[in-house]
Amino acid sequence: MIKAQIWDTAGQERYRAITSAYYRGAVGALLVYDIAKQLTYQNVERWLSELRDHADQNIVIMLVGNKSDLRHLRAVPSDEARAFAEVNNLSFIETSALDSTNVETAFENILTEIYNIVSQKQMRDPPEGDTIRPTNIEPIDVKPTVNSDNVRKQCCQSS
């Protein structure tokens, strides 16, 4: 089971003063812009910079173009946002909260990516104290055995 805690600052300036509290311990972030408002896309670079400054260096970040249902009002081309995501090593998806297009997929994708990274890290670096070590083991001395060549000759010789 994966438990996700989601914080939505909606890009509001009043949250800038406490961003370090939001970013501390975060393992994933969705940077969401409105595909119909160029200014929201322009702010993504600043939010990304703040994330990289305050969050863990291994944080998983997904760029999300929201309101894909407003195709006729599109101000941010998908190709431009996708290219930005690639250059900055971000996942990318377009969603619509209005008609639910790709909303669940966006969360599933980022949570899967986080899970995979955390699982690999735990396999590489098991936390101290997590290994079970028996306490009642005493060392034993193992004496060298007879040379194996001699043993083979003795058992396999014909009389």
Can you walk me through this structure?
The protein is of the alpha/beta class and 159 residues long. The chain has a domain of 98 residues: Rossmann fold. The protein is 40% helix and 11% strand. It has 5 helices and 3 strands. Strands 1-2-3 form a 3-stranded parallel sheet, sandwiched between helices. Strand 1, helix 2 and strand 2 form a beta-alpha-beta unit. The mean pLDDT is 80. One of its GO terms (molecular function) is GTP binding. It is found in: Membrane. Keywords: GTP-binding, Lipoprotein, Membrane, Nucleotide-binding, Prenylation. Belongs to the small GTPase superfamily. Rab family.
Chain-wise SSE layout:
Blueprint: H1 19-23, E1 28-34, H2 38-54, E2 60-66, H3 78-87, E3 91-94, H4 103-124, H5 148-156
Parallel strand pairs: 1-2, 2-3
Note the total helix count: 5
Are there runs of 5+ residues with pLDDT below 50, and where? none
Strand numbers in spatial order across the main sheet: 1-2-3
Major sheet summary line: 3 strands, parallel
Cα separation of the termini: 68 Å
> What name does the CATH topology of the domain at 27-124 carry?
Rossmann fold
Q: Tell the overall outline.
A: globular
What CATH architecture of the domain at 27-124 would you give?
3-Layer(aba) Sandwich
Mean pLDDT score, rounded?
Answer: 80
- The CATH first-level class of the domain at 27-124 comes to Alpha Beta
H/E topology pattern: HEHEHEHH
**Proportion of helical residues:** 25-40%
